Amino acid sequence: MRKRQPAEPAGSQSEAEADRQFVAAIARGFDILHAFRAEDPILGNQELAERTGLPRATVSRLTYTLTRLGYLIYLPRFAKYQLGLGAVPLGRLALANMAVRGIAAPLMRQLAEETNASVSLGKRDGLSMLYIEHVSPRTAVALQLEVGSRVPIGVTAMGRAYYAAVDKVERAGIDVELAARMPEDWPRIRDGLLEAVEMQGRLGFTASLGDWNDTVHAAGAAIALPGGEVVAFNCGAPAFMLDRERLLGELGPRLSAVARRIEVMARGRP
After folding, report:
1. How confident is the model at residue 6 (pLDDT cuts 50, 70, 90)?
2. Closest CA to 5 of 166, 88, 125
3. Is residue 135 within 8 Å of residue 112, measured between CB atoms?
4. What three-state secondary structure class fits 25?
5. What is the DSSP secondary structure assignment for residue 155, as one 8-state letter?
6. First and final CA of the chain: distance in angstroms?
7. For the ranges 57-61, 84-88, 193-197, 242-246, which has the lowest average pLDDT?
8. Distance CA 96, CA 262 (A)
9. Residue 121 contacts by C-beta under 8 Å, 6 or more apart in sequence?
10. Count of CB atoms within 10 A of residue 117's CB?
11. β-pairing, 80-83 with 216-224?
12. Is 72 left (phi over 0), alpha (psi -120 to 50) or beta?
């Protein structure tokens, strides 16, 4: 089973107070939309209030407004909401504008088939990595994730690879947010992130051996795109199919090589 993570608001209260250009009402609306997950597609006002930390009355006004705009659909049978079609064009347009997906997809497909492991590409979304491309091998056993899934930065191979590749300022910001959000788990998460930075520098990839999900092993590698953006991808499988030795000796190095190839191909595009 996946380990549940706390909900991540799109904008913090301190951010809103510090920046006069920051519109808190819009941020709260996105908090509501971000609360939905592939594994939890239907949520009620009480669940949304718990996930976002917003007052129930505020959530009720936001869900009413988002429903009127078509971003949510109300399901009377369950007295809950699901994402509406209004959100679809935005997601499709954002994905269409990511040239790296077209470059990476064929290489990801080849790697998935040759290693019998799932391969995913993601970008940062708060304290999560949002999957923007995903390829599963043609086997009966595959990780149940897809485009749009989110995985936590601090304990996954993809998230650690991203963390290890960004500058110290962004790392420090992530540290502060993680420590505030998960104070009890922060020492363990911090140790894993520090190890990932060292591992990325030494081997060119990171790893998560049951740290996020005790049944999953994965390697991660970051990709530095022209313009300074960083994305990351991973290659993972159920732990019984992918032991530590194979992950560190085979998958990790192959994933790192693919990441470097994507970087070169991305630089060659106009």
Report:
1. very low
2. 125
3. yes
4. helix
5. T
6. 43
7. 84-88
8. 18
9. 100, 101, 104, 108, 131, 132, 133, 134, 231, 232, 233
10. 30
11. unpaired
12. beta
The conformation of residue 41, written as its DSSP 8-state character, comes to -
DSSP 232: E
Which class is 98-267 in CATH? alpha beta
Reference 228, options 154, 159, 166; nearest CA is: 166
Q: Which fold has domain 13-86?
A: Arc Repressor Mutant, subunit A (1.10.10)
Residues 80, 42 contacting (CB under 8 angstroms): yes
Could you tell me where the beta strands, DSSP code E, fall in the chain?
A: 72-75, 80-83, 118-125, 128-135, 150-152, 206-209, 216-224, 230-238
Residue 242, phi then psi, degrees to nearest 5: -140, 95
In this predicted structure, the answer to whether residue 17 has a pLDDT above a threshold of 60 is no
Contact 42, 78 (CB under 8 A): yes
Q: Can you tell me the distance from the alpha carbon of 161 to that of 128, in angstroms, rounded to the nearest whole number?
A: 12
Instruction: For residue 175, name the pLDDT band (cuts at 50, 70, 90).
Output: very high
What are the extents of the domains in the chain?
A: 13-86, 98-267
Determine the Cα angle at 33 with ends 236 and 57, to 5°. Answer: 135
Residue pair 59/51 in contact by the 8 Å Cβ criterion? no
Residues 148, 46: Cα–Cα separation, whole Å: 24
Q: Which of 265, 236, 1 is nearest to 119 (CA)?
A: 236
Q: Which residue has the tokens 């609306």?
A: 29
Q: What is the DSSP letter of 250?
A: I
